[in-house]
Amino acid sequence: MRADLGASWMLTRMASECHMSLRTFVRRFTEATGSPPGEWLIAERVEQAKRLLVERRHSIDEIAAAVGMGSADTLRHHFRRRSGVSPQSYRDQFSAPQPAKVLDQ
């Protein structure tokens, strides 16, 4: 799942790819990671969004799509819930300053 966070990861797909029943997959996944699959996936998507935000190459909308959040609003919701700040505040705090643009005179 980490290799393709932007994909649609439904529980049935996860279980199928692991050749397990849904119930067994959820139980074993939770035992192995300490989190249910959906919560783990959101946490991974937020962590990837943090890495992309620091790079400063993509807009919030592009990052949301790349990590599978669907929309900037969804990314903002989950990002703030897990990190306590908005994606833009995180970017401002942790990315290298952008060089000043020189205006032509």
How does this structure look, described?
The protein has helices at 11-17, 22-33, 37-55, 60-66, 72-83, 87-94. The radius of gyration is 17 Å and the shape is elongated. The chain has 105 residues and is mainly alpha-helical.
Tell me the number of helical segments per DSSP (H or I, 4 or more residues long): 6
Helix/strand class: mainly alpha
H and E string: HHHHHH
| Strand content range | under 5%
Task: Estimate percent helicity.
Answer: 55-70%
Shape: elongated
Short overview:
The protein is an all-alpha fold. Helices cover 62% and strands 0% of the residues.
Features:
mainly alpha
Fold topology:
Elements: H1 11-17, H2 22-33, H3 37-55, H4 60-66, H5 72-83, H6 87-94
